[in-house]
Amino acid sequence: MTKHQLSGIYRREGEWTLIEIKLSETNQLFNSMDPSPFRERDLDPDAASYIMSAVRELHDHSHVKLVVYFPGPHEEGLEGMIHQSIRNYFSYRERAARFGVRQKLRLGRSSLLVGLVFLAVCNVFRLLLPDEGVSTKTLSEGLLIVGWVAMWKPLEILLYEWWPLLADARLDARIRELPVEVRVG
Length: 185
Prior knowledge:
single chain; about 180 residues; alpha/beta; 2 domains; four-stranded mixed sheet; about 60% helix
């Protein structure tokens, strides 16, 4: 979507684009199955998903603010508690995603080593085959193909699979830094 199309979906206040969440009680923002204190609790999966998809849609907007609405007056310190909870949740997600990137690259490197050894073994066997006959030529070509197929997964991991994890880490870092405001409304 273009900035113009998104302007109809998300309200603006001056230079800020608002991601708005309307709640009837504080518990709606948090995962009800998590017994931790509020500051350490997981966000409700639907709330987290909504925030993540909104920030993804607003990726080229530099001034984004999360606004949480409650129907009546809220307790003292609620804004700080909600802001800290969101920071904690998305900090944890970012650390987990960055750990996933490291794990994926480690797997890619070890898989590449295995793939290269297997490819080398296949090529050595190809060199040991006599250079005559259709069946040996077929076997030789088969060994070459199998050797390169063994390289498929390591190259896929190292070239492509870690990028989405890094994108998730960057998204989580951006959400972690969002200003949060609690309003009555």
